[in-house]
Amino acid sequence: MKKYIFVFALLLQGLWVRAQTHSQHNLLADQIDSFNWGIIGSVQFRVPKPNELYPVYNEMINRFSGRQFELEGYIVPIKDGMKQTKFMLSTIPINQCFYCGKNGIPTMIMIEMAQPIKFTFESVTVKGVLKLDNRNAAVYPPISLTGAVPVQ
Predict the structure, then answer these.
(1) Any idea which architecture 2-150 has in CATH?
(2) What is the mean pLDDT of residues 22-27?
């Protein structure tokens, strides 16, 4: 679990990926770039010791903490099943994700749905309360949307 959380923290550093010719999706067409993803990608991290990674939130993201926040992205499941209640939301499709597909590491956050959502390879839009966690990001997800619902 720590390994996944550490990878998650690295994802938030806003590393972008290159499209590969053999991928099913076109990165330039499929990558989601929005104002809200820019806010998420603005988080910095400090590393006081090995295996310790602490988020540093700027004023902009702090304004949205505890408030409704909407994001469009691609579902990256963390458990098997066609219905997902807790998953990662990514700026690129799952087949372009470094550890689950073909390309580099995208920006992602943890989503906790109020009700299950059906897995899809298409992008989804969800809205929930933005939660910021100051604990070690190598263990705990630093950013999440809780009580999320799909937006039509």
Answers:
(1) Beta Barrel (2.40)
(2) 47
